[in-house]
Amino acid sequence: MLSEMVLSIAAQDRPGLVKVLSQVVADHGGNWIDSSLARLGGEFAGILRVAVPAGSVEAFAAALAALAEQNISVSVRRGVGAAPAGPRTRLELTGIDHPGIVHEISSALAAHGVSIDELHTQVFAGSMTGERHFAAKAVVVLPETLSYDALRDELEQIATDIMVEIDLKDDAKAS
Fold first, then answer.
1. pLDDT digits over 41-65, tens only?
2. Which of 35, 154, 144 minimizes the C-alpha distance to 88?
3. Are 7 and 35 a contacting pair, CB within 8 Å?
4. Which of 36, 125, 143, 154 could form a disulfide with 113 if both were Cys (CB 3.0 to 4.6 A apart)?
5. How many structural domains is the chain composed of?
6. CB within 8 A of 7, min separation 6: which ones?
7. From CA 142, how far away is CA 155, in angstroms rounded?
8. Is the domain of 67 the same as that of 136?
């Protein structure tokens, strides 16, 4: 029997970090299932879902804790829950960078019971002025009771208020 776990990883970026992590997984008979890893501001961070044989769970957790000696921080969550059900939709946002953009959008999504599956954000220099711009791309899961049009209407109002452009793409219609 396999036990699934989600690992949160953080370390100062350097070559070989994924090799170290994958070696620990392999050494304990585990399987690397899903991951999202990135370098952010000189740090390497991410999440990883693995499955290891039930009899190896404690030794695996101890090996991960020992990575602290290499300045690799790993947090382990056991018993992975089910993913939310409902239609998936893509959300893209761009605008002049200012504090509160993520908070405004995530608050509206949460108020409607929308779950964020993936979120990628970045700040970059505008091509003409060099002014700081903010961009976000997300995959969200709508509850069955929420219409795509109702969410789009609300997000368009917020976009006007915070002066950003939001494009909500209904995956079923975008294909």
1. 899 999 999 999 999 999 999 999 9
2. 144
3. no
4. 143
5. 2
6. 21, 47, 48, 49, 50, 64, 74, 75, 76, 77
7. 13
8. no
Is 92 found in the same domain as 74?
A: no
Give the chain's count of helices (H) and strands (E): 5, 8
Q: Is residue 104 part of a domain?
A: yes
| CA distance linking residue 165 with residue 159, whole number of Å | 6
Q: Which amino acid appears at position 108 of this protein? A: A
Q: State how far the Cα of 73 lies from the Cα of 6, in Å rounded to an integer.
A: 14
Q: Which of 28, 58, 78 is a domain's end point?
A: 78
CA-to-CA distance for 76 and 56, rounded, in angstroms? 14
